[in-house]
Amino acid sequence: MFAIGYLLEALARVLDIVLTVYFWLILIRALLSWVNPDPYNAIVQFLYKVTEPVLYRIRKVLPLGFGIGIDLSPFIAFLIIIFLRTFLVKTLFQLSYYLR
């Protein structure tokens, strides 16, 4: 059972890092939207390709800014990421310690 515990711990650590990196990518994209970056820039294209699938799904569920014209999808994505890091990652850590 200790091997499963270590596997869950490794999974929790990787998931925590991936969620943290994704949080920063969404934050950078949101900040870039304020300055109207060059859409042909490779970095801007990478940020859009990586973050758009999640933000698009959130936009499909929620109307654009509840009628105020502001895109709240990055904020909702932040809340989801914080929830996943707080609940899922910590639960995996606790479960891994229990199984060792």
Q: What can you see in these coordinates?
A:
With 100 residues, this protein is mostly helical. The chain has one domain (2-99). 78% of the residues lie in helices and 0% in strands. The chain has three helices and no strands. It has helices spanning 2-32, 42-61, 73-99. The longest helix has 31 residues, at 2-32. The radius of gyration is 17 Å and the shape is elongated. The model has no long low-confidence stretch (mean pLDDT 91).
Give the helix proportion (percent range).
over 70%
Major beta sheet summary: none
**Number of strand segments:** 0
Question: Rounded to an integer, what's the Rg over CA atoms?
Answer: 17 Å
Summary of the model, kept short:
The chain is mostly helical and 100 residues long. Helix content is 78%, strand content 0%.
Topology record:
Elements (H helix, E strand, L loop, with lengths): L1 H31 L9 H20 L11 H27 L1
Helix pairs in contact: 1-2, 1-3, 2-3
